[in-house]
Structure formats: structure tokens, C-alpha cells
Amino acid sequence: MTDIFESSTDLTVAGGPVRLYRAGDSGPALLLLHGGMLDTAQGVWRRTVPDLATDHRIYAIDLPRHGNSRPWQGILDDTFYRRFLHELLDTLDLPRVAIIGISLGAGVATGYALDHPERVTALIAVGPGGIGARRTAQFLTWLIIRTPGVLRLTSRYLARHPRSIRKSMISTLTAGADTPDFDTIVELATAEAVAKADHDEPALDDWMTHAYGPFAMRLNHLPTLPHLTTPTLWIRGGNDSLVAAAEMSAAAAATPNGRLVTVQDAGHIVTYDRPEEFNRLAREFLAATLDHC
């Protein structure tokens, strides 16, 4: 199942290191972008790649400051990621590609598809960041992330207290410890926490923290989604505590070629809770997109 992650290629993109994993010998190109904080390509996509690689050429990367894409300097905010993704596709020689993103990766992919619809053939956005004008406890969250050193201390705490990661996973995954490959999920997340602490990185990505303002989000794709011409499948876990159903419904309604699917009994990272259903939805949508090209 995880053979794809036993071999890799190291690239330099936008001045920093990027670890690339490849799978699939034929079919349309498909780029996979994982989420933020403790996510990595292997963690999020390990039960997705083998299925999708049967009829797609898969390109999965560890995003900057994740997995083996280290070290990086500077601020990696939304402006950075829009440039980064463009340079990544050029480096991979992919003039056109379908993109699947989760959380941060979905927000990044949405921004890029808005900027460069000519290069994105299809978009699957799972629990995307960057959707909505406000968040729960907006001002308090902004205060916390603005407090000097707190996010680096959080990385160190998680690295030294792996039980807290396990406890968090049990509470956020729909099936808790009965989630498929639960121990592996926790092991990979813990390894990522250790890597963040070792590299003195904050627990949250710059893309996330710079999106926050004190009273409203500085990054909100909703007003621009009527210009998103790329065929888009919005996916939300029915038990997602981070991205509200109303926000996802608004995103789907605003997107000219978009629709929303809610995966029941799934949380924020649908590929952890319901990998088989996610794979089916993704393959059906991508196949239908090709049929209409």
C-alpha cells in the first residue's frame, strides 16, 4: 500500500527543497496537496494513491516545512504559495493538471485555480482553508497566534508529549482508535511534530496564521469564487469541526462548475475516516471531467 513512499525525488522549487513521490504510469496528471500542521503526503494520501494511480499519473509532494521538504526560510504565506505552485508545475513539466487538496492544500489549490484556470483541469477541494469571512473565536485565535513564541512552544510540547497527539486524533477522527491504520496515522503525525521541533518551526503554517485578522479573515476566497471556472468538487466530512457546512454550501453555490458532497461519518481529513468512499468520489468526478473535455 505504501510502496510509493519508499522511493522519492528531491526537487528545488522557489528556492527551497521539495520531496516528490510518483505513482502511476499512464493517464492524466494528478497533483495531491496535503493539509497543514502535522500533515504529510504519506500520512494523508497513503490509502488514496494506490487506487487513484490505476488510471492517473500521481504527483504527491510534502509541502514546504512538512515531511522531507525542509528546511525553508522566510514567510510561506498565500502570496508565496501561489508562486510556489506555479513554479512546481513548471518544474514537473505539467502544463495542465488536476489537483486534489485537503485543508491548507485545498485552499492553496483554490487560489491557484483562480489565478491560472488554464492550467487546472479539475479541482477537488476537501475541507478547504480560506473559505469564509470569520472563524469561531476569531479575536482570541488571532491573539494566540500573534503571541511571540507560542506556536514554536506548541511544536516542542507536541514532540515531547506524543500521548497528546494520540488523544487529539482519537477525539477528531470519527472512529477514534478504530480508524483504519490508526497507529500509523499517529506515528506519522508524531514524527512530524518532532521534525517541527527539531527545525524550530511553529505548529501552524504561515499560510494559516497570516490568513487571520483580529475581526475577520484576511484570506477569504468566497467573494472571488464566481470567477472559478475550473470544474470543482467540494467535499466536506459530515463531522468536520473546522469547516462549517454553511461555508461549504456557499462555496459550491458560488462556483459556476462546482458541486458539494458531504461524506457522512467523516471528520476534517476525509481520507483518514472514509478512504474508500473518498477514492470513489474522486475517480468518478475526475472521469466525468475528462468525458466533458
Automatic annotation (TrEMBL):
PANTHER family: HYDROLASE, PUTATIVE (AFU_ORTHOLOGUE AFUA_2G14860)-RELATED (PTHR43798:SF33), MONOACYLGLYCEROL LIPASE (PTHR43798). The lineage of its organism: Bacteria, Bacillati, Actinomycetota, Actinomycetes, Mycobacteriales. Residues 28-275 form the AB hydrolase-1 domain. InterPro entries: AB_hydrolase_1, AB_hydrolase_fold, AB_hydrolase_sf, Epox_hydrolase-like. It comes from the Bacteria. SUPFAM superfamilies: alpha/beta-Hydrolases (SSF53474). Pfam families: Abhydrolase_1. This is Pimeloyl-ACP methyl ester carboxylesterase. It comes from Nocardia caishijiensis.
